[in-house]
């Protein structure tokens, strides 16, 4: 609702709405549009929340079906599904008897499925990839299982499944590096740590019992309140997001190949591999060694061959491999755009490591009650052990 | 990644073709749902480690949302930020779990409700 | 000494020739002499000194002498004032002595509005008249009290005289005030002193209750008086008499022009309010119930305050503001009728009582009723004259009763005393009592006769408002008055000698301890005791002989001589002697008796209602009755009063036809009629209470009682007025008080407790959120975020 400069929108993909909209959610766009600056903002919420931003845009666009929450999903349906989902999740949370859990899971699944279905129906022209549905169902189902399974180890394992599913989602979103980084770091490192700690922090089973399930794992705590809060938040968030989504500016046509300008050696290698660059040919680089011509709209590569003849290779002739891969783009963004953050991240990791080492060395006294409980346990253990040895009671 | 890119009416165009905002809405829905599930888990489970796990879930959800936005705006800042989130999550998990272990050693229990000394 | 002063007074008055016809000398107020301040100042000084005595716990009778001296000085100053201002035969003189500014402020722009109420004294003839008898009687009664209260020397003596002096000071303020506010100060002051003095014996619950009753009933009247004063200020813009009379002159002109209905309603309302105040202070129906109970106080108090001075304050108020009262169509008739009803009511009650002080109290109420009736029938002269005469003879009567009480250890029941005047040492008391009773009964040629006659005559002369019936009722009351007065006299003072001591015998009360037995009495007691023990048998024989000598009614009657006696009472109280009064009491009684007799001469001084009339006619209470325009109706009225100068004297319109008494001129005939009625009353009392009476306790009247049945009983029970008030006023007030107590307990305390409970309640509400549980906090956070988001969604977008 705070507009930070505005952008002309209303191009292709917006169904022909001609009304210029201000940006939403503070995403930076291009030059400010006409008539958008300088409108006085009198709403107190926007004054408080957006002190240095400009005025919010005018009334909601018409017809409602084309924008706002309605573009994505019917609001009443959305809230209804929220309620249904909330009830389902609440039932599914750990409790002593199994039946309500199964029923709840089914209800929640129903709600989630309906939501996806409805959204899909309304936006039939812009459905996501089918794998989106696959991965998202897996992710949500696994996440539900994470919170509803009474045993901690299973929760962690289901969490790993969730991570894998969201890695899949990353893949679909063309963030391949992130996908695998997620699996390696999250599932491979962090979750393993969790599993270790779970195993460390389980109470020893008593004599004669094969397993012990702590009281606090069996029974969920105030499920209704938590579900109410959660799904209230869900309703609010989805409303806000879906309203905002429809008012997002169309992103500018990207020039992904602009980065190729910074990778002359790769360009050279690929061209050579594909035979476009004969031996002796040389790429013409700019003063700082980049291929300036590549980054332009025209997208040409200027080549100079051994004879000094300059020729250009237009984009249409570029080989398939001559693309900026995700990881390259990410790398450039990371190291060129956020070098300081990398250093800080490193420091954070160092701190964490040191801290973990320091903490784990600390000797901790048992709490009083725990001491008493332990003493009782030991006494029982000794008694039963003594009984077992003698085969009879002491008498 | 042509393997994963089916053709036909369900085709998902990859980078750098821009995404439609309605499509973005789907991803955001998933992210929000995941977030809320994580939140409910955090509020409901008493096992400290499971509670941590649920916060990790919430990180996940945030990550999905960020990457989706990045994809929508064709900006790599989204993914960059997810890297940092990952880093911080790792660091936090390490520290948090160390503390959980200490807490467990003290009370021989992972129950979050055992620690109520700050009640007013 | 005092008689000398009185003589000089009369001489001066004889020389005075009140000028009627526009001598013009009295129009504007002069500045009065500065030493008029002494009149209130000396009693105030005495109050301070007596208070000092009380604090220093002075033993001895010093406070009494201080008081007597101060009051005598006041009296002298008053006489000098009279000489200075009025003895020379001036016209209506008003002198204003300003002593100091009291309340004096102004507001508003320019000239603005002013409120002035200074300690200034309005010295006109009404003032001087009143102050003469107030200070004179005050001095005499203080002297009387010096002996009467001697039993309390060292205990409450100084307190008594301090309150006494303060009373006289307040009365002086009241009478001499130049403005209504100072009058109100004095009014409240006398109420306060009345309370203090009635409750003098504060250890007696009945005395304390009586004091409270007096104060509270007075308060009711005071409220209306205050309202009247406020209304006066609201309408006339001032509370000073001079200013108010000046501004009321146009309304008087309306009256003269014969248009009494044109006077604005607020001006007609003021006297009605003042009137109720007067009713409260002067014990008229329905606010009279405090006066009989006020007899719980010492007798000097009853004599001074409740007979002569304080109770006349109401009469004084009406006299002073007479100019306002005539402006109202309803005020004076109401006053007259209330006075009449009171007179009759009190007389009937007095007929059935047995306590002689009570009887005197009811007679006071009854005579006050006469005075109010007199004011109401437009004879302020008659009322004032009655005030003066009544002051003297009622004081005398009370002091005689006091002497009896003093001597017989508090015995006041007329069924237990008889033949007191025949006991040695009691002669002067008897004579004083006789003089007083004759005055009260209106025996021909006494002062009381003349003053009562004035009022009766005027009642018949004024034909408006049914005043004929006022006259008839007052005539009947005169007969009843004569009857019950002489009932007392014939029962207590003459007849067979008999006495029983009262409750204060042998140190049973605070009074009358053995200290006032003088030495011969003590010696005689001792001697008698010895004799008695030795001659028991002889005594028994004598006692038997005495008994046989009496009628066989089985009473404990015995006769004896004053000091040394040879017989014992068989009431088991041991050795009791009646204590005849000493020189102070006897002296005062004698003086008062002489004054009462001499007061009748006042009637003949001057040509218009006597000397008193002369004084009244020159003051604000003067009024020329319209019914006097008929010529040849006695020497009582003149058509044109001294009103032409606008200060005193009010005219009323054209001549009206005067009323008659069965065809005769009331003024001429009333002497005879009232005289006959008075003598008839005395005769009835003689027949019923003296003739053939052999014991103290019974008389022929007792045989009439069964015939009268419930009426007599009701009269004896004061017509159940007190019980009625208890039912109508006191009980609802108690209920309301309990209700308000509940309100206070639950509402007010409840609110306060709520204020105390609220923080705790709020805390109890909020405390669960600080549970120490991690999940609770987390849920709160998440919920808060959700709520915030919803607000943002709803409000901001």
Task: Fill in the keyword field for this structure.
B: 120 residues; mainly alpha; Helix Hairpins; C: 797 residues; 3-stranded mixed beta sheet; 63% helix
Describe this structure in words.
The complex is a heterotrimer of chains A (395), B (120) and C (797). Chain A has 395 residues and is mainly α. A 3-stranded antiparallel β-sheet of chain A has the order 1-2-3, with no helix packed on it. Chain A has 3 domains: 2-62, no CATH class; 70-245, Four Helix Bundle (Hemerythrin (Met), subunit A), CATH 1.20.120; 258-323, no CATH class. In chain A, a hairpin with a 5-residue loop joins strand 2 and strand 3 (310-313). Chain A contains 14 helices and 3 strands. Chain A is extended. With 120 residues, chain B is mostly helical. In chain B, helix 1 (21-44) runs antiparallel to helix 2 (48-73) and helix 2 runs antiparallel to helix 3 (77-107). The model of chain B is unreliable at 5-10 (pLDDT under 50). Chain C has helices at residues 2-15, 38-56, 62-85, 125-148, 157-176, 180-198, 205-236, 241-256, 265-281, 290-293, 299-308, 313-320, 322-325, 331-352, 356-376, 380-407, 427-441, 447-461, 467-493, 519-534, 536-549, 583-602, 610-617, 666-689, 701-708, 710-716, 721-766, 774-796; strands spanning 30-31, 95-107, 113-123, 417-418, 498-499. Chains in contact: A-B, A-C, B-C. The interface between A and B is large, with 115 and 90 residues.
Sequence stretches where pLDDT stays below 50 over 5 or more residues of chain A = 1-43, 45-60
Shape assignment of chain B: elongated
* Distance between the amino and carboxyl termini of chain A: 82 Å
> What is the CATH class designation of chain B?
Mainly Alpha
Care to give the gist of this entry?
Chain A has 395 residues and is an all-alpha fold. Helices cover 55% and strands 3% of the residues of chain A. Chain A has a 3-stranded antiparallel sheet with strand order 1-2-3, with no helix packed on it.
């Amino acid at each position: 609702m705070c507009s930070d400069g505005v952008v002309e929108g209303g191009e292709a993909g917006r169904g022909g709405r001609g009304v210029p909209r201000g940006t939403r959610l503070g995403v930076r766009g291009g030059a400010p549009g006409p008539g958008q600056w300088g409108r006085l903002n009198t709403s107190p919420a926007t004054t408080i929340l957006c002190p240095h931003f400009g005025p919010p845009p005018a009334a909601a666009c018409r017809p409602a079906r084309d924008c706002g929450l309605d573009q994505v999903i019917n609001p009443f349906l959305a809230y209804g599904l929220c309620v249904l989902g909330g009830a389902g999740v609440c039932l599914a949370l750990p409790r002593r008897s199994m039946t309500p859990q199964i029923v709840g899971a089914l209800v929640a699944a129903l709600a989630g499925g309906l939501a996806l279905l409805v959204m899909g129906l309304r936006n039939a022209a812009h459905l996501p990839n089918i794998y989106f549905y696959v991965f998202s169902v897996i992710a949500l189902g696994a996440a539900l299982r994470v919170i509803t399974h009474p045993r901690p180890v299973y929760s962690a394992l289901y969490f790993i499944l969730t991570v894998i599913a969201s890695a899949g989602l990353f893949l679909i979103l063309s963030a391949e590096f992130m996908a695998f980084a997620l699996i390696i770091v999250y599932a491979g490192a962090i979750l393993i740590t969790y599993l270790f700690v779970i195993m460390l922090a389980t109470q020893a089973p008593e004599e004669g019992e094969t397993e012990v399930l702590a009281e606090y794992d069996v029974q969920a705590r105030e499920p209704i309140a938590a579900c109410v809060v959660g799904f209230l938040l869900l309703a609010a968030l989805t409303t806000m997001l879906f309203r905002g989504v429809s008012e997002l500016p169309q992103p500018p046509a990207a020039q992904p190949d602009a980065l190729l300008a910074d990778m002359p050696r790769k360009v050279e290698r690929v061209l050579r591999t594909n035979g476009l660059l004969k031996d002796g040919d040389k790429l013409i680089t700019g003063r700082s060694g980049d291929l300036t011509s590549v980054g332009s709209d025209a997208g040409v590569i200027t080549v100079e061959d051994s004879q000094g003849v300059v020729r250009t290779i237009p984009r249409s002739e570029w080989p398939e491999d001559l693309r900026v891969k995700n990881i390259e783009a990410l790398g450039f963004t990371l190291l060129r755009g956020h070098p300081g953050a990398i250093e800080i991240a490193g420091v954070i990791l160092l701190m964490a490591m040191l801290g973990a080492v320091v903490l784990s060395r600390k000797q901790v006294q048992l709490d009083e009650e725990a001491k008493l409980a332990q003493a009782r346990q030991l006494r029982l253990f000794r008694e039963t052990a003594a009984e077992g040895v003698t085969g009879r009671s002491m008498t | 990644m042509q393997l994963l890119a089916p053709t036909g009416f369900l085709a998902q165009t990859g980078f750098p073709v821009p995404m439609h905002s309605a499509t973005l809405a789907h991803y955001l829905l998933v992210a929000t749902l995941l977030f809320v599930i994580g939140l409910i888990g955090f509020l409901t489970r008493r096992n400290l480690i499971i509670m941590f796990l649920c916060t990790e879930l919430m990180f996940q959800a945030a990550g999905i949302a960020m990457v989706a936005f990045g994809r929508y705006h064709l900006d790599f800042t989204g993914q960059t930020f997810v890297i940092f989130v990952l880093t911080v999550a790792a660091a936090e998990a390490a520290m948090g779990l160390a503390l959980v272990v200490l807490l467990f050693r003290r009370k021989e229990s992972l129950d979050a409700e055992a620690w109520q000394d700050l009640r007013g | 000494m005092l008689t000398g002063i009185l003589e000089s007074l009369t001489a001066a008055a004889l020389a005075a020739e009140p000028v009627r016809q526009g001598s013009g000398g009295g129009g504007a107020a002069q500045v009065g002499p500065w030493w008029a301040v002494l009149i209130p100042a000396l009693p105030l000084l005495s109050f301070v000194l007596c208070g000092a005595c009380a604090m220093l716990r002075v033993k001895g009778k010093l406070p009494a002498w201080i008081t007597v001296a101060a009051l005598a000085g006041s009296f002298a100053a008053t006489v000098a004032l009279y000489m200075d201002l009025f003895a020379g035969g001036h016209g209506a003189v008003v002198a204003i002595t300003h002593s100091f500014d009291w309340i004096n402020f102004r507001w508003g722009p320019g000239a603005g509005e002013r409120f002035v109420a200074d300690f200034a004294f309005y010295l006109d003839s009404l003032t001087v008249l009143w102050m003469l008898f107030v200070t004179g009687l005050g001095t005499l009664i203080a002297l009387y009290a010096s002996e009467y209260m001697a039993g309390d020397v060292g205990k409450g003596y100084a307190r008594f005289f301090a309150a006494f002096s303060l009373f006289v000071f307040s009365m002086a303020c009241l009478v001499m005030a130049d403005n209504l506010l100072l009058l109100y100060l004095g009014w409240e002051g006398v109420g306060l002193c009345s309370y203090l003095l009635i409750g003098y014996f504060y250890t007696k619950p009945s005395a304390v209750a009586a004091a409270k009753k007096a104060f509270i009933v007075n308060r009711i009247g005071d409220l209306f008086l205050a309202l009247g004063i406020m209304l006066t200020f609201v309408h006339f813009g001032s509370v000073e008499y001079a200013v108010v009379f000046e501004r009321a002159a146009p309304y008087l002109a309306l009256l003269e022009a014969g248009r009494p209905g044109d006077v604005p309603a607020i001006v007609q309302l003021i006297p009605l309010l003042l009137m109720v105040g007067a009713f409260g202070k002067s014990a008229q129906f329905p606010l009279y119930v405090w006066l009989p109970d006020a007899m719980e106080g010492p007798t000097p108090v009853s004599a001074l305050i409740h007979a002569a001075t304080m109770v006349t304050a109401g009469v004084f108020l009406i006299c002073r503001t007479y100019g306002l009262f005539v402006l109202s169509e309803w005020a004076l008739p109401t006053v007259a009728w209330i006075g009449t009803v009171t007179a009759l009511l009190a007389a009937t009650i007095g007929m059935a009582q047995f306590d002689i002080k009570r009887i005197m109290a009811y007679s006071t109420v009854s005579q006050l009723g006469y005075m109010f009736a007199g004011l109401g029938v437009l004879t302020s002269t008659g009322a004032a004259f009655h005030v003066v005469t009544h002051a003297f003879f009622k004081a005398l009567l009370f002091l005689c009763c006091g002497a009896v009480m003093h001597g017989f250890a508090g015995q006041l029941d007329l069924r237990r005393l008889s033949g007191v005047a025949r006991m040695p040492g009691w002669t002067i008391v008897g004579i004083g009592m006789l003089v007083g009773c004759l005055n009260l009964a209106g025996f021909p040629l006494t002062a009381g006769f003349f003053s009562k006659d004035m009022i009766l005559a005027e009642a018949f002369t004024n034909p408006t408002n049914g005043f004929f019936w006022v006259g008839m009722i007052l005539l009947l009351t005169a007969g009843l008055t004569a009857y019950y007065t002489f009932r007392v006299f014939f029962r207590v003072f003459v007849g067979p000698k008999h006495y029983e001591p009262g409750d204060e015998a042998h140190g049973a009360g605070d009074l009358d301890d053995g200290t006032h037995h003088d030495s011969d009495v003590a010696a005689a007691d001792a001697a008698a005791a010895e004799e008695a023990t030795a001659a028991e048998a002889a005594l028994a024989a004598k006692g038997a002989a005495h008994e046989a000598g009496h009628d066989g009614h089985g009473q404990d009657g015995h006769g004896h001589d004053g000091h040394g006696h040879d017989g014992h009472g068989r009431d088991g109280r041991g050795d009791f002697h009646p204590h005849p009064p000493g020189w102070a009491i006897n002296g005062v009684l004698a003086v008062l008796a002489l004054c009462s007799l001499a007061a009748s001469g006042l009637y003949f001084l001057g040509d218009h209602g006597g000397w008193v009339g002369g004084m009244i006619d020159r003051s604000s209470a003067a009024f020329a009755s319209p019914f006097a325009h008929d010529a040849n109706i006695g020497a009582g009225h003149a058509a044109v009063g001294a009103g032409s100068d606008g200060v005193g004297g009010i005219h009323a319109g054209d001549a009206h036809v005067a009323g008659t008494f069965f065809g005769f001129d009331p003024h001429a005939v009333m002497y005879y009629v009232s005289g006959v009625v008075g003598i008839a009353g005395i005769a009835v009392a003689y027949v019923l209470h003296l003739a053939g009476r052999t014991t103290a306790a019974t008389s022929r009247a007792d045989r009439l009682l069964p015939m009268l049945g419930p009426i007599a009983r009701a009269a004896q029970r004061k017509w159940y007025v007190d019980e009625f008030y208890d039912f109508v006023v006191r009980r609802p007030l108690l209920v309301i008080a309990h209700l308000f107590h509940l309100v206070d307990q639950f509402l007010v305390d409840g609110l306060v407790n709520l204020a105390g409970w609220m923080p705790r309640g709020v805390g109890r509400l909020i405390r669960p959120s600080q549970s120490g549980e991690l999940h609770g906090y987390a849920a709160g956070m998440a919920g808060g975020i959700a709520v915030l988001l919803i607000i943002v969604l709803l409000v901001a977008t």
